[in-house]
Amino acid sequence: MRLREIGDVVFTTPAVRALRRRFPLAHITYLVESHAAPVVALNPNIDEVIVVPRVRGIAAALADIKLGRRLRSSRFDLAIDFHGGPRAALLTWLSGAPERVGYEIAGRTWMYTRHVHRPKALRARHSVENQWDLLRALDIDAPDPARDPVEMPADAESTERVTRRLADAGVSSTDRVVVIHVSAGNPFRRWPLEHFITLTTILAGGQDRRIVLSSGPSERAAADQVRAAARAALGPDGSRVLDCGEFSLTELRALFDRSALFIGGDSGPLHIAATTKVPVVALFGPTLAERSAPWRSPMLPMAAIDAGPLPCRPCDQRVCAPGDFRCLARIPPERVAEAALRLMRG
To answer: What is the rounded distance in angstroms from the CA atom of residue 56 to the CA atom of residue 148?
Structure first.
């Protein structure tokens, strides 16, 4: 079970593969909320995906009781709660599985039969490794990104749609597509828009490069602003900054297969990009690359960029102590462009 968020669900896929390797004949069910469900919908190591409704109040309690009955009737032998939140812990307990593994969290530990200590302090240790602690009780070896990378199989229909949309936008087979994701899960991880504009303008200077700006549905206006400003700065070459509309998660996954580079902050799309072979430039502000860098083969090209040591970094992303989001604002776009061009040169 991992209800949210998108990147966190991606980070569980190496563990799912390890569970399949440990229990090759098992029936594996994954519980997830709808917005992250596409990540695991086609996973070959999962037999069944149950989408948990995201509701509140009395409706949530009734939905959980109903789902709990369904889980109990399935008579699972083992339940693993990779989430650790109150609702996930409750559903784990309601499953009735005789073995229930979760984190040692005040007020919820009693819902598990095995619990693993999770330090409250933000450590320079990857999230995949932190989640993997739950598997150690099952005699599963330590994680290895080369053996167990993150995984999200391509969807054939999404691939066809993306191919058609790029063709409609004038992208030829020889053009190199650069995807720049301009949004993030919260304001603490958003690189300044003016930096995105400068970066887009620099990268669109290459004759064979085409820039696709992606964003979350709520930040479409930000992508439009970056596109308009970059096009204005580029003049006749502004057409290299494409307008392909919004992409679903499965379409993003297909887009990355066609791309020469992905650039973005610590967000769901960054970790979906990591499930492909696309070179990645990852921007880290309040989070650490040691915790959230793409988990995949070290042979694949990747650059992690941050503002360097700061006394307030990492943080819990509730309040910016200095008030100026310096951990992101101090990453110059020219430095990101240099890393991008270096990766594209191979």
So the answer is: 36
